Every structure is written in C-alpha cells, then in structure tokens.
Amino acid sequence: MAFKMHEIRELIRLIDESSIEEFEIDKEGTKVTIKKSGAPVMTVAPQAPVSVVPQAPAPAPVQEAPASPKEPQVAAPTKVEEEVEDANLHKIVSPMVGTFYRAPAPDADPYVKEGDTVNGDTVVCIVEAMKLMNEIEAEVRGTIVKVLVENGQLVEFGQPLFLVKTT
C-alpha cells in the first residue's frame, strides 16, 4: 500500500480540523478520498493500471484433488446462512472515525474477549479520535461472539466492532 496508517490518520485529523468538506489524494496508484458531509467517510482504493498491450490469458485455476473417502466433507457456511446468523446478533458499532483499542493500555488485558458476558454499561473498547480516548459501552446485555477489528486498526463511523448474542 502506498500510504502508511499514520499518514492516513494524520490526513483525517487535518481534514477534520479544517473547513474542507472533501479531500482526494492519489499516491503511487492508491487513491484516498475523505468526505466530511454528515458522517465522515473514507475510502482507500487502488487504481487499476491502464494497459494497452494485450495480456496473456490467465492460467487455468488449480483443481484440488478429490478428498479420500476417509476425510469428512464439511460444507462452508453460505453467504445466506452467515447473514441469517448475523441478523440474530447485535452489532456494537463505532460512533466515530478513529483508532480502535481493545485495552486501556498497551500492556493491559483487553476490556472484553470472545465468550465474555457484557451488560449495557460494560466498556468494550476505546476509539481514539483527535487525541481523545472515547470509551465505548456494550449498550446491550449478552455474550461477545466475535471481535471484528484488530487492535490499533482505523475504524469508520458506523463500522461494526463486535457481535453480541443478546440475552
């Protein structure tokens, strides 16, 4: 990727503190667009190279050898099954653009992990925005099923952070 995370964070901070409503930059084929109308939105999309020279056909996909009769066949969940399962879970979402932290300090244990029980006022993480540490609460009672983002990852407004099976 042409941009480093600290460069993107700095761009967001500068745009957020300015009166600029929209900003776009292209660096080494990667385009970053930041818009500030209502909910902040950020997209990072590599641009496809334009080629005039015909390319060789793509190689044929590699086929896996059939499984032996001794190996059980397990079907991966379909997209529809995953959506139905997700529909039964509450999503804790980020209320702002910022950096996601699972623990109050780098050497501390995470606030919550998969399998932990939470209630409405349980702090589940911190989202840092403009040097302010914002504690995010579960707002529901239930069990953490999945942590959807990595520690230190940049998150967007409305991005799901955790899945909770409510009780």
Question: Would you write up a description of this structure?
Answer:
The structure is a single chain. The protein is mainly beta. The protein is built from two helices and eleven strands; from the N terminus they run H-E-E-E-H-E-E-E-E-E-E-E-E. It has helices at 5-17, 79-87, and strands at 22-27, 30-35, 41-46, 90-93, 98-101, 117-118, 123-129, 132-137, 142-147, 154-155, 160-166. The strands form three sheets. The protein has a four-stranded antiparallel beta sheet, with no helix packed on it. A four-stranded antiparallel beta sheet has the order 8-7-5-10, covered by helices on one side. Strands 1-2-3 form a three-stranded antiparallel beta sheet, with helices on one face. Strand 7 (123-129) and strand 8 (132-137) form a beta hairpin.
Oligomer: single chain
Uncertain regions: pLDDT < 50 for 5+ in a row? none
Q: Helix count?
A: 2
- Major sheet size, sense and barrel closure: 4 strands, antiparallel
Spatial separation of the terminal alpha carbons: 42 Å
| Proportion of beta-strand residues | 25-35%
Percent helix, as a range, is 10-25%
Gyration radius (Cα, Å) is 21 Å
N-to-C SSE string, H for helix and E for strand: HEEEHEEEEEEEE
Would you tell me the structural class of the helices and strands?
mainly beta
Q: Based on Cα principal axes, name the global outline.
A: elongated
Keywords: Biotin, Fatty acid biosynthesis, Fatty acid metabolism, Lipid biosynthesis, Lipid metabolism
Domain Lipoyl-binding: 89-165
Region (Disordered): 56-77
InterPro entries: AcCoA_biotinCC (IPR001249), Biotin_BS (IPR001882), Biotin_Carboxyl_Carrier/Decarb (IPR050709), Biotin_lipoyl (IPR000089), Single_hybrid_motif (IPR011053)
